[in-house]
Amino acid sequence: MKFLISLHINPAVLDALTDEEKAALGEGHGRFIQALKESGELITTQALADPSQAAVVTVRNGQPVVTDGPFLEAKEHLGGFYLLDCEDRARAIELAGQIPDAAIEGLGVEVRQVMFADGQLEA
Fold it and tell me: Which of 13, 69, 85, 117 could cysteine-pair with 106, CB 3.0–4.6 Å?
């Protein structure tokens, strides 16, 4: 079963961390990624640029309209994700609990099953 684990970032929370805490966060992700590679459960992981670098595209009167910056004004934003292939939801939740962000108040780790991928409904 495939699961998307999304990391929701609050810049104010990250800014309040010490340099040592930030380094530990990065090192924790490195260890987590290595463990997922070894277990064969990692499909991919990506970190996203800051929302200020985003472009929002809408179509009005048949023409694309591009607006720079985030879609919504919010204190949190999607910072990255892990796409996993693991046994079941319980395993995905277990893995999500190993992500260092889950231990930091104000950061969010969300687990959602993939329903549709590459033209195929997931079981």
Answer: 13
